[in-house]
Amino acid sequence: MWSNRRALATAATTGDAHTKLRLVGAILGFLGSIWFMRHAGAPLWMASAFIGMMFAEALVYARVRAETGLPSYYAVPFVFEERDFLLSITSAGRFSNRQGLEALTSFSIFGWMTKAMFQPTGAYHVENLELARQGNIARSAMLWVSLMAVLAGLVIAYYTCLDTFYDIGALSSAGAEGDGYYEVRWARGNYLKMLAQARSTEGFEVLPNVFRAGGGVIVMLLAWLRARYVGFPFTPWGYVVACTYGSTFWTSFLITWAAQKVILRYWGARAHQRAIPLFLGISFGYMFATIAALAVAFSVGKPLSFASGKRLYFDI
What we know:
By secondary structure, the protein is mainly α. It contains 13 helices and no strands.
């Protein structure tokens, strides 16, 4: 937010009606989300802080995707860490009575918003608009296509989940071990966390917040060094991604980085530009392989779900 303060101020004072409309829509959406959470039973301070963090995460993730092309939506807080942060800076005693437990329960209902679905949407739209610019496609046409894709995705998601759960049940949809679908296991763990918090007598947690503050200092230092010294090799986005699901990315990043360096070093920028379709083909091939697995699973009578696609690999 701070680094984009001038852009936001310009958007607020510009004469462009569309820019002002987007800014007003963002403000109304921000306030409307807080109002919705408040009327669902979450305390006002928790709702405001939570929506603020979600908005900041969406901006950061969009920036990461715009600069690095990060091929994943997992590079955001994924397990309701926003709640853990808020609880670690407040007194646990406020949630020990019935009213506090009701407030904590109402707030925890909104954990689904942190499941890496809301924050990446801004990045996808940024990429769509950039594709429209490069392909000389009208922005309005791309926005309508994006909206239709969202609606189609909702229909497919509702059908996939409901069909799978009504067919074999949520508890067995994640595998033969019977420990349940991911969201079922997450909900069970979420309930146990709430009980532990209600019984806790701890107040402000020093050590976790010291580490959080240290991470913030490191990010600001890396951003300053990168802005001050041309060619500084380390980026704050790499540090942020490494602290989320970096263990799943580092090999892909290492191979891509090494390939880029070798191509630029020995064959130049023209070869680098011509090699881009090859690496895009590798990424698309992975996606099409997953789609093919789902199609095969559906054709042999297995439930149409991503879990079915994964189980099909093991069955084969």
